Each structure stands twice: as C-alpha cells, then as structure tokens.
Amino acid sequence: MMQTFQQLFTQYDWHDIKEKIYHKTIDDVRKSLRKEKRNLDDFLALISPAATTELEEMARLTQQVTQRRFGKTIQLYAPLYLSNECQNICTYCGFSMDNKIKRKTLSNSELLLEAMALKSMGVNHVLLVSGEANKTVEISYFKNAIQLLKPYFAQISIEVQPLTSEEYLILHNEGVHSVLVYQETYHQEVYKTYHPKGKKSNFEYRLDTPDRIGQAGIHKIGLGVLLGLEDWRVDSFFNALHIDYLEKQYWRTKYSVSFPRLRPAEGVSTPNFIMEDRDLLQLICAYRLWNENLEISISTREREKFRDHIIPIGVTSMSAASKTNPGGYVVDPQSLEQFEISDERSMETIQNIIKKAGYDPIMKDWDISYSG
Q1: Are 105 and 137 contacting, i.e. CB atoms less than 8 angstroms apart?
Q2: What are residue 318's phi and psi, to 5 degrees?
Q3: Which of 42, 173, 287, 366 is the most exposed place for a label (fewest CB within 10 A)?
C-alpha cells in the first residue's frame, strides 16, 4: 500500500530539523554547491544561516540552472477572486470569519465582467481564488465558474479550500490546469493557534490535500508556506520534503512553489518571524539548486524592486496587476482585500520590464504553448 505524506511526516521532528539546519557549516554549504545533483540534506545546508555568505555564488548558479531548464521565459498570470465568504478563523487573513466585513460572492454576470477586464489587459492565465465557504462556494460553484470562464482563458488554475479526490477529478475533467494549496505552516504544535476555528483547523486533512490532488491527475500542484508564521527555514524544509514525496508518488504531475510573505490585512496579527529580502533570495536559490524542474512563482505581495531583480535569477512565473478582493477589477473595487499588494503596476508595465531584462513574458503554460 502506498505511503501517504502524513505517514512520512510523522517520522520527522520539527525541533530536530531546526537543529540540523542551524548546525550546518560553511564547508557543508560549499560541498553542496559543488554537486551536480542535490538531495534534501543539501537543501538543509543551502537554507542554513551558514549559506548567507555564499549568496552571490548561489545566485550565479541559480541563474545558470534556471536558464538551462526553462530558457529565458517568465509566465504571467492574474488572480480572479470569486468570494470573500469564509467559515474559518485564521489569525493572519483579512477574510477570517471573525472580521466584521461585507461579504461578497461573484454572480455569473459579475464573473464575466471581471473576465472581460482581465482579457482587456491581455491576461490568458487566470488563478481563481476564494475563501472557504463550503455551503455557498463549493464544487458546483467552481464547476459553473470554470465552464463560464473557459472560453476566455487558455489556462485556469484554482486556489480554493481543500476538496475530495472526486471533486478534484470533476475540476480536472472541466479543464483545471493546476491547483495551489498551502499548508501555511508545518509546525503541527502551533498550527491550531493560527487556525482556531473552521475546517482549516484540521491539520491532517489539509496535509493530505496534495495527495488527493495527485490522485485526481491534475497537471500541476502548487505548494508553499506562509512566510512569517514560523521559522521560514524549518517550514521550507518540510515544504521541500512534501514536494520530494509528491514527485515520487505522482511523477506525471508537475510542481511549483510560491513564497507568500505575510502582508498587512484587515484585523490580522503581525508576523512572528521577519523574513528579509536576502532571506527570500536565499530560499529561491536553495529551491532551484535542489530541484531544477520545480517552477518558482513570485506574487505581487513582493515589492517592485525585489520583483524586478529576481527576474533573471530563478523565477519562472509572476502574477501581475493583481486585485485580491472579489470584483476588484471592475465589479466592486472597494470590497475588502485579502491582503495588501506591494506591486501595483499594470500587466503591460510588467511585460515591458521582463522584456527589458532580456526575457520573454508568456501568458500560458510553456508545456502547452510549445507542444503544438
């Protein structure tokens, strides 16, 4: 019988991993950098404090590996927020059920208006996002939304509440290209303090979600942790462990990693752990040097300067012109955002910056665009 990630996860201890990371030496880091292929122990070295002195060399190697594997292309996408209704209490999210805000779920006509606004910007890859409201924004709502939007976009991805394998299969059959799901933190001891109420408080159910996505045969699975909740180094190791497991179990599926850093939002707590730009650069390099096939995505949470500088290093996809509120493009621009974005520049501006850096901005998955 196939081992689940939950079974693998129980074999690791948060505090042991933390100790391993912080005991890595500069010699360990240099040894890892000299390798052609790197394993999870090398990843531990590359995210360790000892690796900070080697950041320039890491960035140089990362650029080489990324260009060799992905060429000089950056995939662009934009989120389309379907709803801010949510039955969870999450201490870091503006949509949290205990926030007294006006709730909104887009109707069919509003969905189409938002789609037209995105199409006018040249968007061809859309990420559908919602809060976790299982009675109103559920599988039939998602299926209907995808059927409505499919004629307008080459690629549709989703970032919604964890679903069953059967529900993921329904969405796969409707043409969903990828599913993003974040564990937020792998620190099980404190997970409940960030998620005190709602289905999301079930750590194990969320942990098993990528297995259910893999079983449904979805083309791509996106993972990540919310950087700022717990020690980013330890959380990122467990995220890499999860990706490593999934690649072995569902080897036909592609994988991506995102780096959401905690951003200001209505009624949320401040980060427990500060992650500086240099830390994020180190983490991006560590992922790329560990896994050259992994797609790496940066959102508009990040500042303009950082996004511009990271283009030639390790990133393969970026969001642009994002609105993080339902109806944010035209229907209801004043509705509450899930979080504040940092980079508010237009899609056209981002495309021009990518071109100026000598890269090619593309609007749909290169696997699809280059296969015909």
Answers
A1: yes
A2: -145, 140
A3: 173
Nearest to 139 by CA among 166, 99, 119: 166
pLDDT in tens, 152-188: 999 999 999 999 999 999 999 999 999 999 999 999 9
**3-class secondary structure, 135:** coil
Both tokens of 103, joined, read: 């709730």
Report the 10 Å Cβ neighbour count for 141: 18
Residue with token string 């030496």: 25
Helix, coil or strand: residue 119: helix
Task: Report residue 143 CA to chain centroid gap.
Answer: 22
Entry pTM: 0.93
Rounded to whole angstroms, how far apart are CA atoms 89 and 198? 6
> Hey, how many other C-beta atoms are within 10 angstroms of the C-beta on 23?
12
Q: What is the secondary structure of 239-271 as a DSSP string?
A: HHHHHHHHHHHSTTSEEEEE--B----TT-PPP
Bridge partners of 297, per DSSP, are 258, 317
- Shortest CA distance to 182 belongs to which of 93, 105, 62, 77? 93
Task: Report whether 290 contacts 46 (CB < 8 A).
Answer: yes
Helix H or strand E segment including 108: helix 108-120
Q: Provide long-range contacts, Cβ within 8 A and 24+ apart, for 308-311.
A: 308/353, 308/357, 310/281, 310/284, 311/74, 311/353, 311/354, 311/357, 311/359
Name 318's bridge partners: 76, 298
Half-sphere exposure of 307 toward its Cβ, with a 13 Å CA cutoff?
25
Residue pair 145/128 in contact by the 8 Å Cβ criterion: yes
From 159, 23, 183, select the one nearest 81 (Cα to Cα).
159
Question: pLDDT for 108-120, tens place per residue?
Answer: 999 999 999 999 9
d(CA 38, CA 234) in angstroms, rounded, equals 18
